[in-house]
Specification:
The structure holds two protein chains of two kinds. By secondary structure, chain A is mainly alpha-helical. Chain A is built from seven helices and five strands. In chain A, 42% of the residues lie in helices and 6% in strands. In chain A, strands 3-4-5 form a three-stranded antiparallel sheet. Chain A has a two-stranded antiparallel sheet with strand order 1-2. The longest helix of chain A is centred in the last third of the chain and has 31 residues. Chain B folds into two domains: 251 residues, Cytochrome Bc1 Complex, Chain C (Up-down Bundle); 103 residues, plastocyanin oxidoreductase (Helix Hairpins, Orthogonal Bundle). By secondary structure, chain B is mainly α. The chains are: A mainly alpha, B mainly alpha. Chains A and B meet through helix 1 and helix 7 of A and helix 4, helix 10 and helix 14 of B.
């Protein structure tokens, strides 16, 4: 029986392990994200740098429709700062008393204003390809943050021999099929960080991914800290139940 | 039922008119339970616990959800981002489904190993399978509600199975969809049924318990209870043992909820449903994978659908297929081996179901499907030729001697 147990267990392990390996594209390099593990939390300074990257680079083409300006409070921005950030964008509102629609500066309660009014406009401006919404990007791809980091840093100026890339497409090692319509978005020193962090290509990419992960899982900090407390509680409770069980069952012997 | 005396006058007054206290005392306190149940017997109560967790979290999720294809995806994200502890409710519910199935699968295989489906527990077994069937329907429809890519395409693939039925198939599919594709009417009816079916499960669980308390629990030795010396009252012995089980289950379940909430999920379901873009691999949730593998193993659509449903239907006939009178695998050396092979076959089927049907996976899937169905005639033959080990006289006999049941059986075999 033990033999069968081991064989079934091995089969179960295989079932879990193989799909990951069988995925298309090269193996993604696992990065040391600050939020990994039960005690992992976001690095707020990194999130703010990532927001800067998003604001200056990503948001020129990509929307982030599920995140509101008020959510930036999580990153440590004050209310006035958030108001100022929101007010840079215009949103359509109305109708007013006259029955007219009008434009007004965005408020903290508004969701991030997308760069294009609709998908068609986004396609026209982006060479026919639709830049996906980034709200859930790190949750919506196999590999999560490592995959997005792989995309940002996986561009090659010249594709490997025998591979031809059509005009308007780029070679990327992490992208399934390796043909991506997004031009390489980050270069060294493309942003200037206020906190003095050196803006290498890798640093910019990491910060951007951290921000995207926060956008996809804004509850993560709270989830992790509540989780640790809850599990300690349940662990002690289970031990007490077990001790009680031993004591009650002792009556039978 | 009546005849119980309660010290409290009000309790006594109520009980004479509506015997809720008598029934509770009889079936949850005094209920005579075999004294030798091992921890595999915990999974029934654990499944019941998960059902309650699912209904409770589900009710509060329903207060914030809206079944409309234009907003369903956004509304689920609204729960995740804006509703107080909405993320916790949703992750509890989403992973709760997986843990409900884990408990039920272990519960079913426990019943298989210890022969709990044999006379007089045939209806108990059948009711359990009915619960499992309704669970599958409920889980499938629940998976459609977030209206992500896998929701949409999973619903499209699974509902399309019914089009394999000759003559009326297409009409049935149109009826299921409420239109000519998976669309808003589909989402609406799935939501209504997803809210209704858990209460059907609840009613079936009640009947399952009535049947259980009529035939009484099986036990690891698979022999009948011979008298009061073989049993102990359910409370406090098994209530406290069930609490230990709930503690351990919570540890694992909550660790997943808090630290790996999307472990069982598909990343594609965080992409809003798009009827114009088909995901590269459409896979159902993990608990359907063995049946998905059987479906794809048969190179004919109707044949595949029949085999898939047949794989479940045949389980209803298990009490009559298995010709051995001995229940527990403990005393059936060959059956014990075959049981583990069968379990391995189910796991291999699950693995095949998770893979794109190409190359060797197809071959492995077909062999495993054949092995799955071969298990049943084999069981029938086995009952005729297998020589079981001698059974102990009673549950308490080996326990009283201070030796474990296995030892007692071995001694008797030598004698």
């Amino acid at each position: 029986m033990r033999k069968f147990l081991t064989s079934t267990f091995a089969a179960a392990l295989l079932a879990v392990a193989i799909p990951a390996a069988a995925e298309e594209g090269p193996a993604l390099e696992r990065q040391n994200w600050s939020w990994h593990g039960p005690f992992g939390q976001y690095d707020k300074a990194q999130l703010r740098r990532g927001f800067q990257v998003f604001r200056e680079i990503c948001s020129n083409c990509h929307s982030m429709k599920l995140v509101a300006y008020r959510n930036l409070g999580d990153l440590g921005f004050t209310e006035d700062e958030i108001k100022a950030i929101a007010a840079e964008k215009q949103v359509q509102d109305g109708p007013n008393d006259q029955g007219d629609m009008y434009a007004r500066p965005a408020r903290p309660s508004d969701r991030f204003v997308p760069p294009f009014p609709n998908d068609q406009a986004a396609r026209v401006a982006s060479n026919g390809a639709l830049p996906p919404d980034l709200s859930l990007m790190t949750k919506a791809r196999v590999g999560g943050p490592d995959y997005v980091y792989g995309i940002l840093t996986g561009f090659k100026d010249t594709p490997p021999e025998g591979v031809t890339i059509p005009d308007g497409m780029y070679y990327n090692t992490a992208f399934p099929g390796h043909q991506i319509a997004m031009p390489p978005p980050v270069n060294d020193d493309q942003v200037t960080y206020a906190d003095g962090t050196k803006a290498t290509k890798e640093q910019i990419s990491k910060d951007a991914v951290a921000f995207l992960n926060w956008a996809a899982e804004p509850e993560l900090d709270q989830r992790h800290s509540l989780g640790v407390k809850t599990l300690i509680f349940v662990f002690v409770m289970t031990i007490l139940f077990y001790a009680l069980k031993r004591k009650i069952w002792a009556r039978l012997h | 039922m009546s005849g119980q005396k309660f010290d409290n006058k009000i309790v006594q007054w109520v009980d004479e008119r509506l015997p809720i206290f008598s029934v509770l005392k009889e079936s949850a306190v005094d209920y005579p339970t075999p004294k030798n149940l091992n921890y595999w017997w915990n999974f029934g109560s654990l499944a019941g616990f998960m059902l309650v967790v699912m209904i409770l979290t589900g009710i509060f999720l329903a207060m914030n959800y809206a079944a409309n294809t234009a907003i369903a995806f956004g509304v689920v994200e609204h729960i995740m981002r804006d509703v107080n502890y909405g993320w916790l409710l949703r992750y509890l519910h989403m992973n709760g489904a997986s843990f409900f199935f884990i408990c039920v699968y272990i519960h079913i295989f426990r019943g298989l190993y210890y022969g709990s489906y044999k006379a007089p527990r045939e209806l108990l077994w059948a009711l359990g399978l009915l619960i499992y069937l309704v669970m599958m329907g409920t889980a499938f429809m629940g998976y459609v509600l977030p209206w992500g890519q896998m929701s949409f395409w999973g619903a499209t693939v699974i509902t399309n199975l019914f089009s394999a039925i000759p003559v009326v198939g297409d009409y049935i599919v149109t009826l299921l969809w409420g239109g000519f594709s998976v669309d808003n009417p589909t989402l609406n009816r799935f939501y209504a049924l997803h809210y209704l079916l858990p209460f059907v499960i609840f009613a079936l669980v009640f009947l399952h318990l009535v049947a259980l308390h009529t035939t009484k629990s099986n036990n690891p030795l698979g022999i009948d209870v011979t008298g009061p010396q073989d049993t102990i009252p359910f409370h406090p012995y098994y209530t406290v043992k069930d609490l230990v089980g709930i503690g351990v289950l919570l540890l694992i379940y909550l660790a997943v909820v808090f630290f790996a909430p999307n472990f069982f999920g598909e990343p594609d379901n965080y992409v809003p449903a798009n009827p114009l873009v088909t995901p590269p691999h459409i896979v159902p949730e993990w608990y359907f994978l063995p049946f998905y593998a059987i479906l794809r193993a048969i190179p004919d659509k109707l044949g595949g659908v029949l085999a898939m449903f047949g794989a479940i239907v045949i389980l209803f006939f298990l009490p009559w297929i298995d010709s051995s009178k001995v229940r527990s695998a403990k005393f059936r050396p060959i059956f014990k081996q075959i049981f583990w092979i069968f379990l391995a076959v189910c796991l291999v089927l699950g693995y095949c179901g998770s893979q794109p049907p190409e190359g060797q996976i197809v071959v492995v899937g077909r062999i495993a499907t054949a092995a799955y169905f071969l298990f049943f005639p084999l069981l029938w033959v086995l009952g005729k030729i297998e020589k079981p080990k001698p059974l102990p006289q009673s549950i308490s006999a080996p326990v009283l001697k201070g030796a474990s049941a296995g030892h007692a059986a071995q001694k008797m075999e030598k004698a």
